[in-house]
Amino acid sequence: MNQSMHANPSLFRRLAEGLVFGSRPLVLLVFAVLTVAMLYFASQLRVDAGFKKQIPLQHEYMQTFLDYEREFGGANRVLVALMAREGSIDSQAFYTKLYHVTQAVMAIDEVDDARVRSLFTPNVRFVEVVEDGFAGGNVIPDTFTPYVDGFVASEEDFATIRANIVKANILGRLVAKDWTGAMVWAELVPEDAVEKLDYQKVAAQLEAIRQQYEDEHHSVHIIGFAKVVGDIADGARSVVAFFGVTVAITFLLLMAYTRSARHAALGIVAALTAVIWTLGSLRLLGFGIDPMNILTPFLIFAIGVSHGVQMINAWISERLFGSEIIDASQAGTGLDAYAAARAAFAKLLLPGSVALASDVVGFLTILLIPIQIIRELAITASVGVALIILTNLILLPILLSYIDFAKPALAREKALKRIGRRDHYWRLLTRLSEPGPALATIVVAVSLGVFGFVHGQKMQVGDSEAGVPELRPEARFNQDAAKIADHFALGIDSITVIAEARPDACTLSYPAMELIDRFAWHLYNVEGVQQVISLPQAAKIVNAGWNDGSIRWRVLPRDPDTLRVATQGFETDSGLLNADCSAIPVTAFLTDHKAETITRVVRAVKEFREANQAWYPGTNLRVELAERALEEGDAFESHQVNLRLATGNAGVMAATNERVSAAQYPMMGLVYLAVIVLCLLAYRSPKATLAIVLPLVIVSLLANALMASMNIGLKVNTLPVAALGVGIGVDYAIYIYSRMKEFLDQGLGLSEAYFRALKLTGTAVLFTGLTLAAGVGTWIFSELKFQADMGVLLSFFFLMNMIGAIVLLPALLRWLLRGQEAVAGNR
């Protein structure tokens, strides 16, 4: 019987024999039935994208977003721009297409018709000063019907429309600054107003509009969250191909490592079983698969292969030699396949369980971030890794017990020839565990850690580039966004601050309106703000109109009656006020949604409201003032204003960035705490635990520097990678230290223990790191930029954590365990 098995506690033997190997056919039948069932549930998974899934709904800004979503719309806007490839919009063909595009956008069920704005919608009007006061009407006269057969537009018609566009002050907003295009704005209905808002369906309908109305003379450009989801979902379909490539590469490398196609296939089967169970569990938990979480199955597969390699490696040693041997002279006759599987199971149950438990706890810490999409990722990854405990530590050894080498004697002969072939390299690495080289290694590692810390400070929280970073710069969406930004004075990037005040503040409170006006001017002068729209600005234009259009009268009237005249013409569908004028939005359109731009604007808002006593945290001032107005009646008078951040897509990003920034260090702290606790429980050695954890810390710091150098911001879909990197990376160190500890406990010196650990598990660790890095490295060719970025980051984590475990771990142990290891073999 294998000597190592006798050294294991009897608990492992009883567990292996009684629970796992006592009823192998029954266990395999249970696995087979569950796999078929999970495959069925997995086939029912659907892409489940949601706007609110990606935002921290409990954040202060998002409470404002939810309070006013129905009144002013949210951040879920779609912009469709029709552009003339040559010339201007002054053609009948252009206006005909614009009319049909407007109708097509309104025909989408998920679009809120009341919030659609276009030259052809009745809520886009102009006002002008005439001899008798004011005159106004639709920008497109009712008599202008280019879409009706027989109508022929004249130059006078185009001149009239141009004049109306200028009077309506929509040049740069609904009409391009250079008169080369026009825009259709649309808001999607709130997600809680419909049973299910299908973003992919909306994206497909928008793309159909492009296909129908784009021709050699006109181009259509579409931006908005729904279109982003659609483009990402389209790109995510290529993930299936990448998954197949990853499986194929892994199988070929695993076959080269094990010298056996059947055993390589077993490792793949066990990992794929975990993936199938994970996807089936998602369906049972009521989740869909979000495009942003489409990479999670890759991680489950990678972790499953990582631990499967260790199990296969241990089984081969037990099967061919009866134990894991250091040189050929120790080779026994070998165990049969069943006994070898039991021995491998007993040997790897503790380190495998500790490593996988570390992964699970690491993923669970991501739940700290109160954003649904991140929590779904945490649950998915945690369930998947927990299932790997079953598939790799139970299913795989049972499968190994049934599958033997085709020619065991030949396999043993070849394995004996390979023993000692890599000793030269292992001896070179072993020198790093000697005092001098170990100290030099530690100094280099600390220097790299300092470098990573310093340069990691440049990593931004949020987007670091214009456009949608999840897509490549050449993606159609990013090209559309750039086109719209070039020709219009605003785009989809906006932040709206809601000014809460007393009821009818726009007619009864000049001080409140004056403060809101000053605030709008303050925002307009912030770098990165293109344009600001607010009710006081519009009211000043109207007031000037009532006074012959004189620029001297472009001011807010102090008299309540005159103020009422200046504001009473604005309806709620203008988006400038609510029904009783107790909430007045101030919308700033930004040049981009880079983190630095959003941070600068948010800081300016906070500075203004604190300097002007316009901030009442934790309250809805509008409701309180309304209640007081009812109680006090005509005697009520209040000029308080509460400037609440924020709606608009930039407001959502500001809340998300703040939440991610606040969660970054607590989350990583808990990840490391979980790893430390599990290592302490497993090995009962604070110094050994420190040696395992320190390489992970250095790699995390270097990863931050890498993200900064690649302009990858820390955001919803990159923050979890840091926790995943730590959880997966600790596996290497745990497997190597577990083997070293076996030999240290036998009285061997550290260098000799390290050498033997390398001989037994070094090849498996190197193979795992390189294979996983090669698998995710293929992602750099993905259509999705965020998948390519994740491929680079995960490859970095896999390789650097592997190097840290092989090189830095023994160096740290040399200086942390001085005087504690046996003297033999160290001199």
From TrEMBL:
It holds the Pfam family MMPL. Keywords: Cell membrane, Membrane, Transmembrane, Transmembrane helix. It is a multi-pass membrane protein. The keyword tRNA processing does not apply. It comes from the Bacteria. GO terms for cellular component: plasma membrane. The chain crosses the membrane at residues 21-42, 239-257, 264-282, 294-316, 348-371, 377-403, 665-683, 690-712, 718-737, 758-781, 793-817. SUPFAM superfamilies: Multidrug efflux transporter AcrB transmembrane domain. InterPro entries: MMPL_dom, Mycobact_MmpL, SSD. Gene3D superfamilies: Multidrug efflux transporter AcrB transmembrane domain (1.20.1640.10). Residues 264-402 form the SSD domain. This is SSD domain-containing protein. It comes from Rehaibacterium terrae.
